[in-house]
Specification:
263 residues, alpha/beta, Rossmann fold, 6-stranded mixed sheet, 4-stranded antiparallel sheet, 9 helices
């Protein structure tokens, strides 16, 4: 399992002039095997923070520690090490999926990034990954355009899991999906966290939905964390006015409990 610690993190948008910080002195911590929900409106800095953790944007101040070691992306070796520990799934699954590759090819490619697998083992791994995210193995021969939005998002999730990361960052992965599909994907995230012992940073703007999958919640506004508390506390007794606004302005997402598998 993998822990994440962010201390006084600052990230600025690129440009010729000094711009307001997208992430302004943010500190947060996710203990191993737990889920932290990061919630806030669009433009609050959530995605900038996520991309900083995986090394996609430069950090202008502060520290990011994964398993107690500072995140560095200066060399190929650093990037490979970070890629083995941390994976991100984005809002638009098309950014992660090659439209020319079948689901089988995409998952097999990801599964062999850090280790060699023979043909039979690759096929078994693809079937295993599809099962993990609740997809029929019969979809393995399809191209992304032949899948629904929810199915493509699950394939992107399976692709991230293929390298067996300890930390998974889910960045607005349900925001483009229908409400009924959102509920199913949220339950999948909960089940994966439990089964695999993942550490998860779950990012969204729908506070009830984020709370559904999270042990604790951090509320972000204008690049800063304004409140952090256990999920029950945020739902029942939020302290910050902005948190209370998020609770009242966003309709509750009714998520049925995950079905238990037959013994």
């Amino acid at each position: 399992m993998t822990s994440l610690q962010v201390t006084d993190l600052t990230v600025r948008h690129p440009g010729p002039r000094v711009s307001p910080a997208a992430v302004d002195g943010v500190s947060l911590e996710i203990p191993s095997g737990t889920t932290l929900g990061l919630v806030g409106e669009s433009g609050s800095g959530k995605s900038s923070l996520a991309r900083a953790v995986v090394g996609l944007v430069p950090v202008h101040g502060g520290r990011i520690l994964v398993d107690g070691r500072e995140v560095r992306t200066r060399t190929v070796r650093d990037r490979r090490r970070l890629g083995r520990l941390v994976q991100i799934v984005l809002q638009d699954p098309d950014t992660a999926l090659d439209p020319r590759m079948t689901v089988r090819q995409a998952l097999a490619e990801a599964a062999t990034v850090f280790r060699r697998l023979d043909r039979a083992t690759r096929a078994e791994r693809v079937t295993e990954l599809l099962g993990l995210v609740g997809l029929d193995p019969g979809l393995a021969g399809r191209l992304p355009r032949q899948l629904s939005g929810g199915q493509r998002q699950r394939v992107a999730l399976a692709r991230a899991l293929a390298v067996e990361p300890g930390l998974l960052i889910a960045d607005e992965i349900t925001s483009a999906l229908d409400v009924s599909v959102q509920a199913s994907v949220l339950n999948t995230i909960r089940e994966l966290q439990r089964r695999l012992g993942l550490t998860v940073l779950f990012i969204g703007h729908n506070l009830p939905a984020v709370c559904h999958v999270s042990d604790a919640v951090a509320v972000m506004r204008h690049g800063r964390i304004v409140e952090t508390a256990p999920t029950d506390t945020v739902l029942r007794a939020p302290e910050h006015p902005y948190t209370r606004t998020l609770l009242t302005c966003v309709p509750s997402l009714r998520v049925p409990p995950p079905r238990r598998s037959s013994p």
